[in-house]
Amino acid sequence: MDEPRTREQRQKDTLHRLEHAVDAWVATADGGVPCLVPLSFHWDGAALYLSTLETNPTARNLTANGRVRLTLGETRDVVLIEGVASVVEPSPEVVSAFAARAGFDPSKLARYPYFRVEPRLIQAWREVNEIAGREIMRDGEWI
Amino acid sequence: MDEPRTREQRQKDTLHRLEHAVDAWVATADGGVPCLVPLSFHWDGAALYLSTLETNPTARNLTANGRVRLTLGETRDVVLIEGVASVVEPSPEVVSAFAARAGFDPSKLARYPYFRVEPRLIQAWREVNEIAGREIMRDGEWI
Fold first, then answer.
1. Mind listing the pLDDT tens digit for each residue in B77-107?
2. Is B18 helix (H, G, I), strand (E, B) or coil?
3. How far apart are CA B30 and CA B60, in angstroms?
4. Closest CA of chain B from A120, distance in Å
5. A-chain residues near B70 (CB < 8 A)
6. Strand B77-88 vs strand A48-51: parallel, antiparallel, or unpaired?
7. Where are the beta strands (DSSP E) in chain B?
């Protein structure tokens, strides 16, 4: 097992993931019913952008309560993000960056809202020796 | 892009995943708040077994409402399972199989309940050409 990474290293690894990963696992909820789907996303340095058909449970949950948990990566190299989502009209820069990254352009489809997710909590860990120091963002601030 | 797999092939691939994957992404919910964690699991041919500390949100959600969504694999090779969980006292066979697979033995720890998850719905898909035929179990029955 490798030495546990420093918090600084985990923040660097996390930013790399945010900038390069294509998809995330996205969990939302409606009461006690969980929804979990893979979605492409775009990261603009401060927030993630998601888009899915407005009638899908994910979109309905995000619109109704804005609470979301996303994970990037593998189960043994976890980046877990807890955030608050809101429906937005994205800038042209975000529209084109999202389309390039996700491989589809919601701005050209009917009923595909964009959700902007502001991270509030981020945890990053690999093996059990990294569990203790896993928090790298709290209350929206990098630690 | 490969030809879309037949339903039979997806069922075979899914059973292989269930028999060999170590971890799953596990989504549960409490009053509109989603929880998403990676957990090790055991598959006994009919149900999945999970175990986590009883004070963790995942355990509390499973105990409170039993609703769970799990995914195995990657975001471009998805097995998605929707199931109902209940707290169980597992058989000795399940206890030792779980310990061998997960790398820890909840039966030797305090406050680590076992949850048995009965799948009700399973979907399997890779690229967009597999979205249409992705349902391979419905109402607990293989299609």
1. 999 999 999 999 999 999 999 999 999 999 9
2. helix
3. 9
4. 14
5. 36
6. unpaired
7. 23-30, 33-40, 42-43, 48-51, 67-74, 77-88, 114-125, 135-138, 141-142
Count of C-beta atoms within a 10 Å radius of residue A93:
9
Interchain contact, A75 vs B31, CB within 8 Å:
no
Q: Rounded to whole angstroms, how far apart are CA atoms A18 and A40? A: 11
Instruction: Determine whether the interchain pair A25/B36 forms a contact, defined as Cβ–Cβ distance below 8 Å.
Output: yes
Residues of B in contact with A33 (CB under 8 A): 29, 67
pLDDT, tens only, A24-58? 999 999 999 999 999 999 999 999 999 999 999 99
Angstrom distance (rounded) from CA B41 to CA B48? 6
CB contact under 8 A, A30 and B31: no
Helices (H), chain A: 7-20, 57-65, 92-102
Identify from B17, B35, B75 which residue to disrupt to test chain A contact, counting A C-beta atoms within 10 A and taking the largest count.
B75
Indicate yes or no: CB of B65 within 8 angstroms of CB of A27.
no
Name B48's Cβ contacts closer than 8 Å, sequence gap at least 6: B18, B24, B41, B42, B70, B81, B83, B116, B117, B119
Q: How far is CA A100 from CA A15, A61, A93, A95, A105, in A?
A: 19, 26, 11, 9, 8
The pTM (predicted TM-score) of the whole model is 0.95
- Between the alpha carbon of residue A87 and those of residues A5, A15, B45, B102, the distances in Å are 35, 23, 42, 40
Task: Pick the residue from chain A with its C-alpha nearest to B81.
Answer: A36
Contact B21, B13 (CB under 8 A): no
The reported pLDDT for the residue numbered B2 is: 87
pLDDT value for B125? 95
CA angle B46, B43, B93 (to 5 degrees): 95
